[in-house]
Write a structure and sequence with these properties.
It comes from Marinobacter nauticus (Marinobacter hydrocarbonoclasticus). This protein is mainly α. 70% of the residues lie in helices and 0% in strands.
């Protein structure tokens, strides 16, 4: 991996984490504010949702290293979390290598 791609990947990943967390918090807020649902059911749903989002976050973002960067970026792109303007700054090779369509992820 080129040094320039590594540097840009770190920024893409940081912004993707922000997007992921924002989306998760929005989901949590919807569950919490759904007064049509009994409070205990909302609690149980929220608990399960937090667990699922935590697992998903771990799968996508944990183990930050150059060797994991291609798979992480592929997952980030598949989830629609990547900043498109930053993706455009990556080398053609790295962008093609991390295209989720290659793996049928989109």
């Amino acid at each position: 991996m080129k040094e320039s791609d590594w540097k840009k990947f770190k920024v893409i990943k940081e912004r993707a984490i922000e997007r992921f967390c924002t989306q998760a918090l929005d989901e949590f807020g919807e569950v919490i504010s759904n007064t049509d649902e009994h409070v205990h059911n909302r609690y149980l749903l929220l608990y399960k949702l937090v667990q699922n989002r935590d697992k998903e976050m771990s799968l996508i973002f944990d183990d930050h290293s150059r060797s994991n960067a291609p798979m992480q970026l592929t997952a980030i792109r598949a989830k629609g979390l990547a900043d498109e303007s930053l993706l455009a700054e990556l080398s053609d090779e790295f962008r093609e290598q991390t295209d989720p369509k290659r793996f049928g992820w989109e």
